[in-house]
Amino acid sequence: MNTTIFAVIFPFIAGFLLWLLFRNKRSGKDRSVLSFAMIMVGVIELAAVVNLFLYDLTGTEFGRVWLGWKIGGLGLSFRYTGFRGIFGMQAAFAWVVTFLFAKQFMKNDTRVIRYDFFNLMTLGATVGVFYAADFFTLFFFFEIMSFTSFMWVAHRQTYASQYASGTYLGIAVAGGMAILMGMFIVYASYGTLDFAALGELRTVESFPVFMAAVCMLLGFGAKAGAFPVHVWLPASYTEAPAPATALLSAILSKTGVFGILLVTVELLAYSNNWGKLVLVLGVITMVLGGIRGVMSSNFKTTIAYSSMSQIGFILVGVGMQTLTAEAAVFGSAEGTSAEAYQAYQMAVNGTLLHMINHSLVKLALFMIAGMVFLNVGSYELNKVRGFGHGKPFLLVTFLAAALGVGGIPLLNGYVSKTLLHESIAGYAEVLNGLSGAGVSVGLPSAFIKGTEYLFLFSGGLTLAYMAKLFVVLFVERNEDSLLQYEYEEKSKYASVLSKAAVALCVFPIPLIGLLPNIVADGVAKYGFMGAAIEGALEIEQERMQYFSVRNLSGALISVAAAVVVYLFIVRVLMLRKKGEGYREIFPSWLDMEKYVYRDVFYRFFAFLLGIIARILDSIVDTAVVFLRKTVYRDKALPYALPEGNRITHLLGRSMECTRKFYCAVTKREYKAKNYEHKLALKSMDLFENLRIIERSLSFGLFMFCVGLGLTMIYLLLVN
After folding, report:
1. How far apart (Å, rounded) are the C-alpha atoms in residues 608 and 617?
2. What is the mean pLDDT of each run of 10 residues along the chain (719 residues)?
3. What residues have CB less than 8 Å from 57, skipping those under 6 apart?
4. Cβ neighbour number for residue 22 with a 10 Å cutoff
5. In 546-657, where do the E strands start and end?
6. Helix 82-105 crosses helix 253-267 at what angle (to 10 degrees)?
7. SS3 assignment, position 660
8. I need a labelling partner for 444 at 20 to 30 A (CA). Which of 77, 188, 370, 528 fits?
9. DSSP letter assigned to residue 49
10. Residue 428: which of 346, 352, 351 has the closest Cα?
């Protein structure tokens, strides 16, 4: 079996086998055995994807491979490239470390077999997404991944988890339909969904293809947690078990970004309009996520909004890729193509590296949040306050992850954020050069300058909310002195496997930051998706000076912004009243899920569709009444009897005469019984209602349907 196909289908097979073996076993020993089995499955999957990576390093050619099933008439196909390989390894690694952590976190969960089954289904689907060779295969596994990961959010089966999972599933279904619509348009425009073929067929931007890309942006952006389809993210991240939340943030959000990258590279690599759209959405996502993270009073929700903000940073990089590629095309005649390509390559490398860095950091942070929850039983800041005292391992790992995602020099986030920042600054210089030469690319340099300022400010927001969590855990003490004493006495707050899982994620953070030109640039070069600019690879990239005064000054600006935001928002607004602790300060009336999406879909649409249904119902009723009074009106009887018919009239008169004769013979007093009237009423009960039905439009329609059904059955039997 091909190794690529094995990496995709092995988790599915393992999931079904483990479910068959453990579905009826609930003891603690059985759950322990199942945990070790899950770890082994993860190790085998990691070995498979690493094997693909090693084969690729030897120069082995990887062609397109088919699974062999003609699903959907197009079949499922896979292709291994450096870019796909990096995320395949990232996914397998993430599942291994979360399996290690889940042994402790899920040890008392009686429904762990259900969680593990859907966990493996999600792993297989995620690898299928990353190795997909065409949009159809990507969509097939993307939808499987959405429905299996839905079970993570619903796992606890509480009201809050059901509410969150409902939102998650609704957004996932709507996003899937948007992707499917985009695929239809792409297939109608190009006649193929294969990524390699689309890259060759890519021509000038057309309106239908742009609209297809917008549909896909909504669908993939929903999974990534991008504005405005991010509303599922905070509640879902909070309600899902900590190992699942780590995967949702570290890997599943990247499948959405992965889809957006493919749309960008294969369909609209030079589109200025597309670049501006993605850039604007990225900036809004980046800033809004940072603000919500600072204002949240929940440990896990803060990290959830942090994920949203970091996805915004990545989308800014995706937008810059397209803008710089388009600028290089315009600048080829003006001598600025080399500078534009430098900015383009920094955007590509920065995007890829920040996706990797964010995955490592969020794996560590969400597992640390899980450790806190296991010991405290809550994620509320006022409850977890002071828990980190006397826990050096927790201190070191949290600090490394927090400073890493904050972009502090010598750690991984600084490298990727520096590349992204320099791509923005470099693009601004290219625009100035083109503007001086009289060439306009439709994007004002002031807009890019504003994007740069918001980028640095969002870096400050990241440091501010991470400083808030650090101070809550390790600096402040709980207001309940007995609870604080209990926290400080908890020396065995995490198992060896849980600590090992966090340590494995934290270890690369300083390694990437200390050796950026070796580690970071090497990874970026291996995962380079291919030059969208013809002849771009012939241009030698300048060696990035990560620790130059210019780059360090950007980090310093973010630190200064973080100090201001932390002091004003956290210390002044969130802790305004002494003794009450931290409080949520984001206005509840700005909750988009509750007051926009649910109101629109559950109230406005229901009201609007109700009105439409009433109008249509009235039209049908009016038509029926009109036909009933015209074509299907009742016809007058050919005889004019006061009531009944001839039979009831004759029979009633005969019975009345017979009774009169009987009374005369027996010398009894005759009293009329009015048999004619009684028989007329009986006749109406028995026959007249049936005649009304026969004369009605409804009966005619019913008989038409019966005839149509019999005709269809006849045609099926004949053919």
Report:
1. 14
2. 85 93 80 89 93 84 74 80 89 94 85 90 94 92 92 87 86 90 91 84 76 93 88 85 91 93 87 90 94 92 93 94 80 62 87 92 94 90 91 94 92 92 88 66 79 94 95 90 88 90 94 85 70 45 75 91 93 80 80 68 72 81 78 58 70 80 77 76 68 58 73 71
3. none
4. 18
5. none
6. 170
7. helix
8. 528
9. H
10. 346
Name residue, tokens 């450790």.
371
Q: How far apart are CA 514 and CA 546, in angstroms?
A: 10
Distances, alpha carbon 588 to alpha carbons 236, 289, 585, 669, in Å = 18, 15, 8, 90
What letter represents residue 683's amino acid?
A: S
**By C-alpha distance, which of 465, 466, 473 is closest to 391?**
473
* β-bridge partners, 380: 298
10 in Cβ contact with 45 (< 8 Å): yes
CB 539 within 8 A of CB 341: yes
Whether 345 contacts 317, CB under 8 Å: no
Quick check: 83 and 528 in contact, CB under 8 A? yes
Number of CB atoms found within 10 A of residue 595's CB? 12
CA distances from 146 to 152, 162, 214, 224, 329 (A): 10, 16, 20, 12, 38
CA–chain centroid gap for 238, Å, is: 15
Task: Evaluate whether 658 touches 681 at the Cβ level (below 8 Å).
Answer: no
| Residue 254 near residue 355, CB atoms below 8 Å | yes
- Looking at residue 65, what DSSP letter applies? E
Q: What contacts 118, CB < 8 A, 6 or more positions away?
A: 15, 148, 149, 151, 152
Residue ranges of domains in the chain: 270-562, 643-719
